[in-house]
Write a structure and sequence with these properties.
Oligomer: single chain
Largest sheet: 6 strands, parallel
Strand content: 5-15%
Number of helices: 9
Structural class: alpha/beta
Helix content: 40-55%
Order of helices and strands: EHEHHEHEEHEHHHH
Number of strands: 6
Radius of gyration: 18 Å
Shape: globular
């Protein structure tokens, strides 16, 4: 399955991309905004349009919400997934939030409650994810003195977290709220395909 990711340089993007790749998605990235912070929305829209019009994309994805990309996806009938990791995100106040192709995931429960009414069934609450594979590796490479100074919760691997994720999924059968990036991305993709 091929997806389009528009990147602007969020710290979350590499972990999300890694998770998408681990679940077998083919990724086409646009990263012009990372290198050119003065790029204007119309230029970004032109870049995205030239790629998305070629077709074959299961969905477009961004960290945070880009109204111009939502509008392009609406015109092309491509699902647009937006994972909100900041609060507030002023772009959510755009009319584009109501586009039926949107699947907007908000970590902030208050923002979810504020915006869900503008696109019922297309705006969801989901906690932020963490790449436990990467953090486990960092912890395993830490020196003995560094590990000694870590809070007790960081000493072991993510196994206790994975057990908690299982408990969480039992209590949220409609939308399995998880804390692991790979599971989150897999769930996101499954939800979009079902919806």
């Amino acid at each position: 399955m091929k997806i389009y990711i528009y990147r602007y340089g969020s710290l979350c993007e590499p972990d999300i991309i890694d998770a998408f790749k681990r679940i077998g998605l083919e990724i086409v990235e646009e990263s012009a905004e990372i290198y050119n912070k003065s790029i204007i929305p119309s230029e970004s829209a032109a870049l995205a349009s030239s790629v998305l019009t070629k077709g074959g994309f299961a969905f477009a994805f961004t960290i945070n919400f880009f109204p111009w990309l939502s509008d392009i996806c609406q015109l092309l009938n491509i699902t647009y997934i937006s994972l909100i990791v900041d609060s507030p995100v002023l772009e959510l106040y755009s009319n584009a939030i109501s586009n039926p192709v949107n699947r907007i995931f908000l970590f902030d429960k208050m923002l979810y409650e504020e915006f869900e009414q503008y696109n019922k069934g297309h705006i969801f609450h989901m906690p932020l994810a963490a790449n436990t594979s990467r953090t486990d590796e960092i912890i395993s490479l830490a020196s003995y003195s560094d590990k000694k100074n870590m809070p007790a919760t960081y000493h072991s691997s993510a196994q206790p977290i994975r057990k908690n994720v299982h408990l969480i999924t039992l209590y949220f059968p409609i939308m399995k709220e998880v804390l692991l990036t790979e599971l989150l991305m897999h769930r996101l993709v499954c939800m979009v395909l079902i919806l």
